[in-house]
Amino acid sequence: MYVPSTSDFNRQAVVYRMGDPSKPLAALTFDDGPDTKWTPQILDILAAKGVKATFFVLGQEVEKNPRIAARIVREGHTIASHGYSHVSLTQLSLPQMFSQLSKANSAISAATGVIPGLLRPVGGAYNQQVLKTVTQNGFNLILWSVDPQDWRGLSAGAILNNVLSNTRAGGIILLHSGEGPNLTGTVQALPQMVDQLQAQGLRLVTVPELLGLSA
């Protein structure tokens, strides 16, 4: 379990929704994995395109698929926390919240050797207690600026149009890579998404690089 330092207790809570709009950067992010169906396909596409992304993983899915989690890190992507299970932190007691954070970190660390410093709360839901707790546990809280709602099983065209229409410099794009929803559209849209965002002059980077944060 992460033991917060004095600097963590004194650190002001910050919620990040996007990066510096004056820099031609954007970040692809993937929630809810890793799984054995969608995540490997996404990793294959990112490798072929030479692009690094950020994966906000669930601790319980990392425990099921530690090799996929290790691959994320091995291939140069940033691995970050989405909690242990897919529950809203705002609905939990303080002990339950600490358990979510610490169990997720333990699972990620065991599989990858990395203790994540970035957290995306499920549903983007947070309140003052969540902010205080995640900050005391050493996390930066990361949301997004573009949400094509790919988890709804939308077509590749619908996902692509949404992303291209709404992504600007500094953008953080929310996509998914976990079991449950049909993410065929996500996988099919991703190669064109990368190509067309780059054609717009954006360089696709990890969230830490976009925001100038430690992973």
TrEMBL record:
Classification via CDD domains: CE4_NodB_like_6s_7s
Record's GO cellular component terms: membrane
GO biological process: carbohydrate metabolic process
Keywords assigned: Hydrolase, Metal-binding
Entry keyword annotation includes Lyase: no
Name this polypeptide is given: Polysaccharide deacetylase, putative
InterPro entries with a match to the protein in the record: Glyco_hydro/deAcase_b/a-brl, NODB_dom, Polysacc_deacetylase_ArnD
NodB homology domain location: 24-205
One Pfam match: Polysacc_deac_1
Gene Ontology molecular function, alphabetical: hydrolase activity, acting on carbon-nitrogen (but not peptide) bonds; metal ion binding
